[in-house]
Amino acid sequence: MVRPGGRSLRERVPNGRSRPSSEDTGEPEFFRRMIAASTDRFAYLDRDLRYRAANASYLSSWDLTSEQVIGRRVDEIMDPDFYAQEVGPRLAACLAGETVVFEAQLPRRGVRTGWGEVTYIPWLDAAGSVVGVVVRVHDITARKSSHATIERLTRLYRILTECNQAIIHSEEPSTLFPVVCRELVTQGGLDMAWIGRTGSGEARIECLAVDGEGGAELVEGLSSSPEPDGLDDDPLARVMRGAEGYWSLDLQADPVTRPWHASARRFGWHASASLPLTMRGKVFAVLSVYARDRDVFDDDARDLLAELARDISYALEHYAAIAELADAEERWKFALEGSDAGVWDWDLRTGKVFYSAHWKSLLGLGEEDICERLDAWKDRVHPDDSRALSDAIDDHLRGRTTTLHHEHRLRRRDGLYVWSLGRGKVVERAPDGTPLRMIGTTTDISARHAANDSLSRLGEIVEKSQTEVYVFDPDRLCFEQVNQGARVNLGYDIVELIGMTPLDLMPDYDPPTFSRLLEPLREGSKSQVVLETRHRRKDGSCYPAEIRLQLLGVEPRFVALVTDTTERRRAEEAIKHLAFFDPLTGLPNRRLLMDRLERAIAASRRSHRMGALIFIDLDDFKSLNDTLGHDQGDRLLRQVAKRLASCIRESDTLARLGGDEFVVMLERLSAQTREAASQAEVLANKLLEALRAPCELENREYRCSASMGIALFGRQAKSVEELMKQADMAMYRAKAAGRDTMRFFDPQMQVEVSARVALAASLRQGLEHGEFLLHYQSQVDGAGQVTGAEGLLRWQHPQRGLLQPVDFIRLAEETATILPLGRWVLEMACAQLAVWSERPETAGLTLAINISALQFHHPDFVKQVLAAIERHGCNPERLKLEITENLLLDDRDAMIAKMSMLKEQGISFALDDFGTGYSSLTDLGRLPLKELKIDLSFVRDLVSNANDAAIARTIIALGDTFALDVIAEGVETEAQRDWLVGHGCRAFQGYLFGRPGPAATSAARLDA
């Protein structure tokens, strides 16, 4: 199949990576021939969704020629409804760059003829743009049919189970037959079922039970047929005479089923089956079932229905035996004294009950341990069985059942319960039918009940287990037993499997190899032999399996437990992929990158060839997430991954570390450092250029860029972690240089890093040694009166002197030293407020301190603030906490809750540096703020800069709107103060009113 321009489809691979054409690489011609001859259907569509190529399988599926297809649009070929519902939307997604896989019932000239797995693969050009769609259709009709068959058989198995339960709990045909018919219709997916027999007299047909739409009509029609002689050879009569089932797979055309044709046409039945139900060697009745689906009665379904008929026949035999036994018990009541059953004789006229000596001994009772009343029996019945036993006795006394037959538990003299079977019958009635005398027996069935329960549970568990169970003899190795799980999975029935051997299912083993495998078991080993291999189904397909072989039993038999490991292997592969690949982009993650980088460093040392690590960080990616949302951010990251991947060699590694950080690892560069650096620079420029092209996000163009740091490695390469740090530092140098550029790692950067590490250590030591100070800067009102102060942190460094916050606060936040430092500031502020409160001239002053985001989000922040106030005994209404807008980017609800708790205690909040970060009118309305601070960056030039003036006016207006105080910081000139006063600002802070200083030097100004 050839794309426009005569280039092979092999030029592009499904992930969009470019590859040379077969002419360039010498790729064999048979690749194209394979597609042309493939039974899978292949086609190529251009961007206008016109056919440009299609193989023979694809054309034959539509019964069209190449001339009728090539050049036409897809919607001109396909059924309109199928195209609109299934194809059109998915082709649009593929043209947007997504690989689409779905299952659909395939149409052919308007008729759905089968099922296919359809794959649409975007075909990209060298620039990464989608220029067409590769279509592949794989026929899965057989698989779908197999699934439908399994589902149908599962329903029939469920019927078999439910009907067997009904057999256990029913006592006569009249209670069993309705349950069987109902389960066949409601659980088995059949459309109608009835049980009947040929009668005598006026009623030609005697219906014993019926269920499903149309059943009553059919039976009535057969019973009242004006031509009774015409019914002598219908399926019912045939089965009653011959005791063999009759199957009709074309019900409406079968001459034998002529009496049923009218009802079959009316209710849409196309297949039927009639099966004999026997009792005492004769056909007692016939079970007939009907279905609209002609294929419903396949071999497996026939086997299951035949098994159900046999089970019902067994139940009929059981009912007959019970009736005969009841008669025998009535005649031989006293003879039973010598058996395992205890006898009781109940005179309903007097209420007295005779209990035989054996009846009493069953419960460990003596002759005088029980009174001659029915309550003596009922009082010993287990509470859970009492109601059911009473109902069973009452039903028999009222004539609803022919005999009493009930299993229940009786309490022995020692308090333990034993399972017993109570059987009985009314042997004497008054002329009006009132029961006068009832005789029965009680038999201890504890052992049988326990054994039956255990064996039944075990057998059912093994039979229904999804694990395949095989039992085969040690000599011939032929299967003797195979459970349902194996039969369903393999597709064989039990008849086919009996006589087969494990080697028929294990294509990877020959007889000598398998014999050696079994040798330890033949020698008597009780251990399991475990192997993993392939298992072959009836259709020839294979699946991975774990096989456990063991020798069991007195008469030795090999037992094989086989587990299909397909899903487990898929899960293992999925786990492996999650462990080593990024789920968003499909690129290797940090873990896989670090492993490959470690190998690359070792290889570089051996080969003496250089390598390079390019650390890539997208510029301003956070703003994109904040404005357009994380879904668009994810979309951009996927596009970035594709662009970066299109620029690198197959030997290179592209990984995503997380967020907007990517890494490219280059191997086998030049052995010369300068030349290797030049090679890395060329690729980095190529990556930068690829990222500059606009991206499509929400129907808009978005232009992105990246900052890249490059670190080389070779024979002298250090650890993986060291190399990553070097590339990261180089990337930050690129950020500082204006972004959208690259920088190589400079050894001088290591000096700066070392200095930062030393400063971080000094921070902790300074806090321990009391090197930090709190300076105070006055805050005044419009009249120039001091209303309070802001506490400003200073560090009296032993070598570098007095340091401003700009020199160390960011480092303190990065190292979390800000937490103990912030607590120290809080303690100092509360202590200062306590001192001021002792003097009338300073008692009314407020004190503001800055709170970092890390400190505010600490779980114990509220407790810390309140504890400090309580320790120093200061007035909380004089404490003002200044927060910045970056706090608003996190959990607003939790933030508001903390602020509200502190506000209830009198503490107020000011929003510092307002206008320099991110906030909204909604935030101002929700936050329990008292004050807005105009940042000094807006105050500095507001007299001469119209933009700064406009921002200041807006902040003052917002304060008025939300009833918030507004204070301007950084006021240094009279002109600035006058402008602010003229526009409504009433509070100020800055050098015009005093420089910050320690409490001692600033006391005079604060006292003024």
Describe the structure.
It is a single chain. Residues 1-27, 226-230 and 333-338 have low confidence and may be disordered. It contains 36 helices and 38 strands. The strands form 8 sheets. The chain has an 8-stranded mixed barrel with strand order 30-31-33-34-35-36-37-38, surrounded by 4 helices. A 5-stranded antiparallel β-sheet has the order 4-3-7-6-5, sandwiched between helices. Helices cover 42% and strands 25% of the residues. Helix 7 runs parallel beside helix 12, helix 22 (621-628) packs antiparallel against helix 23 and helix 30 (861-872) runs parallel beside helix 31 (892-904). It starts with a strand and ends with a helix. The chain is extended, with a radius of gyration of 45 Å. The protein is an alpha+beta fold and 1008 residues long.
Cα radius of gyration in angstroms: 45 Å
List unreliable stretches of 5+ residues: 1-27, 226-230, 333-338
Instruction: Please report the total strand number as a whole number.
Output: 38
Global outline: extended
Count the DSSP helices.
36
Helix/strand/pairing class, anyone?
Answer: alpha+beta
Helix content: 40-55%
Q: What share of the residues does DSSP label as strand, in percent?
A: 15-25%
Mean pLDDT: 82
The main pleated sheet reads as:
8 strands, mixed, barrel
> Gap between N and C termini, in Å?
93 Å
Short description:
By secondary structure, the chain is an alpha+beta fold.
Give a quick set of tags describing it.
eight-stranded mixed β-barrel; 36 helices; 42% helix; extended
